Amino acid sequence: MYDLLLIRYGEIGTKGKNRHVFEQRLQANIQAALKSLGIEEVERAHARLYVPLQANLEDMVKRLERVFGISSFSPVVRVPLDVQAIEAAALEVVAANLREKQLDGSKLTFKVNTRRANKGFPVTSPIMSRDLGALLLQEFPQLSVDVHEPELTLEVEIREHYSYVYTEKIPGPGGLPVGVSGRGVLLLSGGIDSPVAGYRMMKRGVAPIAVHFHSYPFTSERSKEKVLDLARVLSTYGGPIPVHVVHFTEIQKAINEFCPGKLMITIMRRMMLRIAEAIARQQGAAALITGESLGQVASQTMESIIATNAVVQLPVFRPLIGADKMEIVDLAERIGTYKLSIQPYEDCCTIFVPRHPETHPKLPEVEKAERKLPVKALIEEALARTEVILCGEDQIFR
After folding, report:
1. How far, in Å, CA of 343 to CA of 55, rounded?
2. Which terminus has fewer CB within 10 Å in the chain: N or C?
3. Nearest of 283, 296, 288, 297 to residue 318 by alpha carbon
4. Kind and range of the H or E element at 193?
5. Which run of H or E residues covers position 111?
6. CATH architecture of the domain covering 4-171
7. Is the pTM of this model over 0.90?
8. Bond preceding residue 75 cis, omega within 30 of 0
9. In whole numbers, what is the pLDDT of the chain averaged over residues?
10. Which class would CATH give 183-397?
């Protein structure tokens, strides 16, 4: 019955003269999301996008529910700008809904909502809604009108070249299309927080480049695979994600040998940010992204954040900084990363951890402790041994 999916956006509509850039990116991202289903045609016209129903509707819905920038979408019947054609489509759509609901003699409340974006159409919205409502009441005695809390709403959009008739509005994730805000390097651990941070920045249009610090043999190969699985889940929201797996073992050994135990975590984080910034500059990324939440652990106090930020020039985005743990867990469950994150495989942040880490490190003290490290040589070696793995929705490309 339905011909198309009609796709709406929200925030993009506020972008003024630059709106076409956001629209084009959203169009490209929808095409990428649906390509494996055999759909390559996405039409864009007058604040709407249209996708032909050339694949299983349920499969298409699952893909579009994860495309940032979409506020909602609907399966629609497209008809000419003609009153009789609209009436015929309305009868067809409502009849199909009534068959699905299988009413046993009970009434179903409804209303008609018409939007006339095309002011050249000769019938106004209120009259169109009134006349369609009367037609439906005449045709379907099981219907009754309720304009305040209807069980069924027939939507009619009269636009520039066609009219669209539908009853269902499926929510999208909102936000901005991935890629319109540039690239950012995401420090991706195997924990709960960093994948959620990546998701939030993707929702603001950032295309992530992931960096994972791996300390083999102190951390297992399975811990690395877990992170790649997390990246693959994130890729379902914005396309394939390159993961830079940094060999971090020698750096952790050196910190353990030469630096005071209470400052190990702070110095380790400083080394991570240095390496992440170097990768960002190589890849043309404009910011770093971490999953830090203020006060959650020793390395996430204000003093610790000041000490780690001091070694980089690029901005460090912390989208979870004001979130509590339960908020983060709830979102992790919703986006599909939580069950992976709680798998019991250690990452590099859980080894060589001092019993009493410094929670309020002073920057001069940290810098003094770091002087014993061959910082430049350690970073160069780590970068030289970095492995890049592309994680896509269905597989991991090595």
Report:
1. 35
2. C
3. 288
4. helix 193-203
5. strand 108-116
6. 2-Layer Sandwich (3.30)
7. yes
8. no
9. 93
10. alpha beta
